């Protein structure tokens, strides 16, 4: 099987490794099946799409909607390099699944409106699958509604032209969409289970997602959630796109 590629942008080693392990585990891949590039560490090398089955983009501390003057040189570089790769991915309709940060990156590349209107605090959200989502192979086997973990400062308030909305929540209308036939973005995190989220809460305690002194309460709410379905999306992606 040609490997999949995980593009990561988390500067914290513990968070980056936790994310990698989660994608391996829930996508059902081995380390030889999932290559990882930490884009925040060094310039993104040229990616030959024909060498991969598909691309995952993990979450990020970066926000596409941040004012340009507030972005660090690293964020500017990452956005430029990911954007150039996404242009090729979109043109080829190459299998792509972006988790959380994928909404901002893929959405903005397709002229969606990405802003702070539908930000969600860290925790679980009830995701509702619409008719188009029920017919989409990435959501095959999932129920019409399910809990998923979220936590984001920006979201898509206007879909890209031609994009297909697949799932929503009451607090965030765009939770999952598809561009063309093979390009996907989720606002929720399909790679997270409870322990994965707890680890991130501890790592990002001072990142502005919640008051630091409320971390224990945020963890308690996360542990009370029943999140088991979203990981099926990663397995479905691999089953659909794995190729020799």
UniProtKB/TrEMBL annotation:
PROSITE patterns: GATASE_TYPE_1. Residues 46-192 form the Glutamine amidotransferase domain. InterPro entries: ChyE-like, Class_I_gatase-like, GATASE. Coiled coil: none annotated. Its EC number is 6.3.5.2. Keywords: Ligase. SUPFAM superfamilies: Class I glutamine amidotransferase-like (SSF52317). It is an enzyme of class 6 (ligase). It comes from the Bacteria. One of its GO terms (cellular component) is cytosol. It holds the Pfam family GATase. GO terms for molecular function: GMP synthase (glutamine-hydrolyzing) activity. PANTHER family: GLUTAMINE AMIDOTRANSFERASE YLR126C-RELATED (PTHR42695:SF5). NCBIfam families: PRK07567.1. This is GMP synthase (Glutamine-hydrolysing).
